[in-house]
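Review session, final week

We close the course with one last complete record, chosen because it touches almost every idea we covered. It is 8-oxo-dGTP diphosphatase, a protein from Knoellia sinensis KCTC 19936 with 144 residues. Go through it on your own first, then we will talk.
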Amino acid sequence: MPAEQNDPIEVVAAAIVDDLESPTVLLAARRTEPSALAGGWEFAGGKVDPGETDVQALHREIREELGVEVEIGELLEGPLERGRWPLGTAYAMSVWLAVVTEGVPAPIEDHDAVRWLTRDDLYAVEWLPADLPIVDAVATRFRP
């Protein structure tokens, strides 16, 4: 079924942690563009291309942006249909927990820095406002 004119653009992202069951750190990436978002911290990911599944898009985006392979875990349920999270009014984002299986995350595309955050400094970076509720959702999964 074709998307309707007002359907949000599909976006996928990974909340990359060190352990899918009991994380102790979360990876944040600092955006370089567009200028309105530059300097803000976010989850790596991007738009789903035509013909791609959400999972295919997520693997592609993480390879392009961070240069790593990931194992995808649980979908973090957001408030929109199909468990997505709102990104303004034009986008809807599906976010999965993920762990790195190959490589070391580096800011290759669309980012100029990456940082592992512990429970104590989870909010020490300036998260993009749309990502804050997702950070809160991940925080509830952190090991006590």
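Two points worth writing down before the exam:
The radius of gyration is 14 Å.
The CA atoms of residues 75 and 96 lie 4 Å apart.
Good luck, everyone.
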